[in-house]
Amino acid sequence: MNIKIDTKEKFTVINIQETILTANMTAQIENLAIYKTKNVPHLIVQMQQVLDIDTAAAQVMYKIQQDFYASNFSFVVCQLQPNVIAVFEKQDLLDTMNITPTESEAWDIVQMEEIERELMRDFD
């Protein structure tokens, strides 16, 4: 899978450079989980160029996002195209995932979640 990586202070943006994410790419998509072990474990997956996604690939994206949140890290997907949105809707994943229309909004979500985690640590 062809990607561009942009590491910011609080998160990493993965820009997927593929037009189709197929079932054959699920192992490569699963590799995104490696970012949980990085110094900057919060991840934004920018999917503007992805025009279509296989249901297996969508399920893997969902699984990874759930794994990130279970580990107390952010994972936000942004800029989904209409066909990709339709696949996530058909799999009943759209409402359970953290998806934003723009990358800027994804940045905001990650930063808000970081503040929330810090506040929750204060109450422990």
Number of strands: 7
What is the arithmetic mean of pLDDT?
93
What pattern of helices and strands is seen along the backbone? EEEHEEHEHEH
Q: How much of the sequence is in beta strands?
A: 15-25%
Q: Which parts are unreliable, with pLDDT below 50 for 5 consecutive residues or more?
A: none
CATH class: Alpha Beta
User: How far apart, in Å, are the first and last alpha carbons?
Assistant: 41 Å
How many helices in DSSP terms? 4
Q: Helix- and strand-based class?
A: alpha/beta
**CATH topology descriptor:** Transcription Regulator spoIIAA
Name the overall outline: globular
**Helix residue percentage:** 40-55%
Note the quaternary state here. Answer: single chain
Q: Largest beta sheet, briefly? A: 5 strands, mixed
| Largest sheet strand order | 1-2-4-6-7
- The rounded Rg comes to 14 Å
How would the blueprint of this fold be written?
Layout (H helix, E strand, L loop, with lengths): L2 E5 L4 E5 L3 E2 L4 H5 L12 E4 L5 E2 L1 H16 L4 E4 L3 H9 L8 E2 L2 H21 L1
Parallel strand pairs: 2-4, 3-5, 4-6, 6-7
Antiparallel strand pairs: 1-2
